[in-house]
Every structure is written in C-alpha cells, then in structure tokens.
Amino acid sequence: MPLLVYTLIAFFVLFLLSLTPPGANFRRWMMAKLYSSVQKPYEPYIAGRKKTLFTNLSGTVLEIGPGNGANFVHLPESVNRWIGIEPNPHMHAELRKAGEERSIEADFRQVGAEGMEVEDGSVDSVLSTLVLCSVRNPEAVLRDILRVLKPGGRFVFIEHVAAPSGSRLHRLQRLIKPIWWYIADGCCPDRELGKMIRNSGFTRVTLDEFTAPREAMPGFVSPQISGVAVK
Ligand SMILES: C[S@@+](CC[C@H](N)C(=O)[O-])C[C@H]1O[C@@H](n2cnc3c(N)ncnc32)[C@H](O)[C@@H]1O
Known about the structure:
about 230 residues; 6 helices
C-alpha cells in the first residue's frame, strides 16, 4: 500500500483515539508540552500590543484559556482579582506559578469556557488571547462573556483568524485544519472571529487587524485581530 494510505489510516486511528478520554488527555498533555516553544518567538513580538491593550484593565478580570499564564506579567496593578478558566490540567502547575509571581488574588478553575459558572454581570473585564480558536462553540462562549460582564465592562482580545475567503492562505488554513486541530488541542485556524465578535451584541467594538510575522507565528495562524468589545 502506498505511504499516503498508511499515513491516512494512522491519522484516522489517532483521530478516533483522540475522541476517547485518554486520547483527549494525551492531546492536552502534548499541547501543554509544545505550547511554550510556540510561545517563545511570539511573546516578545506581541508584548507591546498586550501592554497597550491591557493598560486600562482594573478590578476583577476573568481570563478564558490562560494557558501557562503568559498574560500575568502584562496585567496592571489596578487588577486586584483574577479568575482563570483553564480546562487543560497539564497547564495548571505553570499557571499557578505565574499567578504566585504576580501575587494577585487568583481563582483557578479547571473547566472549559462553555461551562463557566460565573455570576451574571459580575466581572469588570474578560480577557482572551488565542483561545476562541479552540473553544467548541465560539458564538455561545461570546454570549456567555457578555453575560458575565458588568454593564460597561470590556472584553479584551487577541485572536488568530481566518484569512480572506478565497485566498491561498485561507485554502491552506482549511487544508491544514484537521492535523492542526489534532496537534493543537482543537485549534481551528479558519474561524471568522472578528465577524462573530461584532455580531455578539456588544454595544461598541474596536478591532485592529494585523499579520504576525513568520518569525513569530506559523503563516497559517498569522492573520490576527486585537481589540476591545464593550458591553
Ligand atoms: C493557544 S493557547 C493560549 C494560551 C494563553 N491564552 C496565551 O495567550 O498564551 C489556548 C488555550 O485555550 C485553552 N482552551 C482550549 N479550549 C478551551 C475552552 N473550551 N475553554 C477555555 N479555554 C480553552 C487551552 O487549554 C489553552 O490553554
């Protein structure tokens, strides 16, 4: 049998295994191990943008998918309470360490953003960096973000998004998606998150589109957006 057929069979078996609890746990472990190497070139590149975006955060911040806690260093002193919704247990040791270094009142929850049990209108801001690509239902999560924000509260985000429809990069994103989904714990490179955020019922959305350079991020996740959506 040609190599391609073996590869496809192996991939299909891996995909089926990933749907079992041990398989999903393996994918999360792999993501936790691989993520710091993806982050290494990206964090210095994105640091300035994060600093600017996070400047006005204050009070209680709820962060979805904080991973290993890369955003703690950018949170201003005016943030005095932090709730982290991180479903990957293999991220939690590093996440707690980063939280301790920032010495903030931190509440770590090992659940997905889909199941966050957070009171309506209870947080000043919600933060998400490179997370909406991975949640199962981004529209539902955006509705929940709106629900937990206080009136006037802000959703602050940096996300990678779909390239323009019909472009070569968009085709590449769709081609690579099944493999990337497996390796990167459910990440979909072709989501139109800007459109979804604009259509989620926020009163005002400020959004900047940019392209991360090749040295910072693989090309198929280079189209990105950052911004603030106000409730
Ligand atoms: C690419 S990492 C980004 C981590 C971090 N926000 C950062 O910028 O370094 C994606 C994160 O989203 C988390 N994640 C995946 N599915 C999620 C879900 N349904 N709800 C909340 N977080 C989720 C992953 O566990 C992972 O920590």
